[in-house]
Specification:
With about 450 residues, this protein is α+β, with helices and mostly antiparallel strands. It has 13 helices and 19 strands. The longest helix has about 30 residues. The chain is elongated and about 90 Å long. The relative contact order is 0.12. It is found in: Membrane. Its EC number is 3.4.24.-. It is a multi-pass membrane protein. It is an enzyme of class 3 (hydrolase).
């Protein structure tokens, strides 16, 4: 019998961050609808975080509004009297319109109510990005500082990249910061990389279909920063030395007589010696070369942690004052939105970007939090998802805020209000489309898990 190891700690961190992040985004989105509806005198019957089919985890009525928490963490809602929404309360719509109902309000007020959630999500993202820059600043890796070059994984090797290459241009445009590489690659249909190898310049052209394969793997470990393999600490619960031992500051430069000057070289070679005795060649005190015997674990580990790349490579960090962070956060948020729109456009215009490779459900979203609790990453992802939530909700699809806004704009331009029956059917069609898309995304994620 084979038992598969499961990292419950990483799972818990992902789930916890996902729930907290989306609770913030959904609650504030729905609060936008709620506060503007109340502002214009509409009666709000329900305010729910998460959906509550059949039952609620918690609910309490305060005044005319029932506040509650559902058990399906896929969204939330406010039920405004006199509005055709996901509740599909047809009986109420058959009654004469009342002054406190949504349908009794002027079109411009209804438009503001419908767009308030989207606006709050977008503004929230800009505030989050501004505060991230204010608290943590901005850290980037200049390509000019990558003195050891890159580490290429199997896909990078397949396309022609090599360990130690320095990528200087993407599609003949300078790559100033290594951090920009993923988006520069994924937001193009064709790619050519200019690299410096052993002091000479060469060009790597991606063959047709390669970007699609790269996109499917989400650029995971395609290329990474190469750095020396210097011991920071030894884990006594894993390390098993047969002769000598590793000390803090030792630099491992070889494995069983084969050079392994960098951590990536050693990690690749160690996979071939799982559960075996090996000899490590170590440079100690930068002067002495010693041999250390060790038995690798079942996972091919020696039992030590390496010193951070920050010890060997200089990153560029920019600090922001409070006033500086505001325009910088706005620029950052707008750029992320434009990149997201460009990515969506490529899904429908490029053969190298397939919807099935890029669509994901709550499973994919949860994984993006990284498996450990990191507040900077948490707020960065929350800001990005806030922008995405704003964009997706403003799309002119029935059942989304954008669909309702579109019908309201039609009314304001033509002077004719769409009939209640039309709105009911449009809402039903929109809900079927959205539920179908969610089911498709969930199915893709389940398939990926088993694959």
């Amino acid at each position: 019998m084979v038992l598969l190891a499961f990292n419950w700690s990483a799972f818990g961190a992902n789930v916890g961050q996902f729930i907290l992040s989306f609770s913030i985004l959904i609650a504030l989105h729905e609060f936008g609808h709620f506060i503007t509806a109340k502002w214009f005198g509409c009666r709000v019957e329900k305010f729910y975080l998460f959906f509550n089919p059949w039952f609620s985890l918690w609910k309490k009525k305060i005044g005319e509004t029932e506040y509650g928490i559902g058990w399906v963490p896929l969204g939330g809602y406010v039920k405004i009297s006199g509005m055709i929404d996901e509740s599909m309360d047809k009986e109420a719509m058959k009654q004469p319109a009342q002054p406190w109902e949504f349908r009794s309000k002027p079109a411009w007020q209804r438009l503001i109510i419908m767009l308030a959630g989207v606006i709050i999500n977008f503004v929230l993202a800009l505030i989050i990005f501004a505060m991230i820059l204010f608290v943590w600043g901005e850290e980037k890796l200049p390509v000019a500082n990558m003195k050891y070059g890159i580490t290429a994984d199997s896909m990078a090797l397949k396309v022609g990249l090599r360990d130690g290459d320095v990528i200087t241009k993407v599609n003949n445009q300078e790559l100033k910061y290594f951090d920009e590489l993923p988006k520069r690659l994924l937001l193009n249909e064709k790619n050519a990389l200019s690299v410096t190898r052993n002091g000479k310049d060469t060009v790597i052209n991606f063959p047709p279909g390669f970007l699609k394969e790269l996109s499917r793997n989400q650029l995971k470990n395609f290329v990474s920063v190469r750095f020396p393999n210097v011991v920071d600490s030894v884990d006594g619960s894993i390390a098993k030395f047969t002769s000598g031992q590793l000390l803090k500051g030792d630099r491992i430069i070889g494995l069983n007589g084969t050079p392994a000057l960098y951590y990536s070289d050693f990690a690749k070679q160690a996979k071939n010696y799982k559960s075996q005795a090996v000899t490590l060649t170590v440079l100690r005190n930068n002067t002495d070369t010693v041999q250390v015997g060790a038995k690798l674990s079942d996972a091919g580990k020696v039992g030590y942690s390496t010193q951070s790349p920050l010890k060997f490579i200089t990153f560029e960090k920019k600090e922001y004052g409070f006033l500086e962070s505001i325009p910088a956060g706005v620029r950052y948020g707008v750029n992320r939105l434009l990149e997201y729109i460009e990515g969506i456009k490529l899904l429908f215009t490029s053969k190298e970007h397939a919807v099935s490779d890029n669509l994901g459900s709550v499973i994919s979203i949860g994984k993006t939090f990284g498996g450990s609790w990191d507040w900077e990453r948490f707020w960065t992802m929350t800001g990005l998802f806030s922008i995405i939530l704003a964009f997706m909700n403003v799309l002119p699809i029935p059942a989304l805020d954008g669909g309702h806004a579109l019908f309201t704009l039609y009314e304001m331009i033509t002077g004719r209000k769409p009939g209640d029956k039309f709105m009911e059917y449009a809402q039903m069609v929109g809900m079927v489309l959205l539920l179908g898309l969610m089911a498709y995304a969930l199915g893709l994620d389940i398939f990926r898990l088993f694959k």
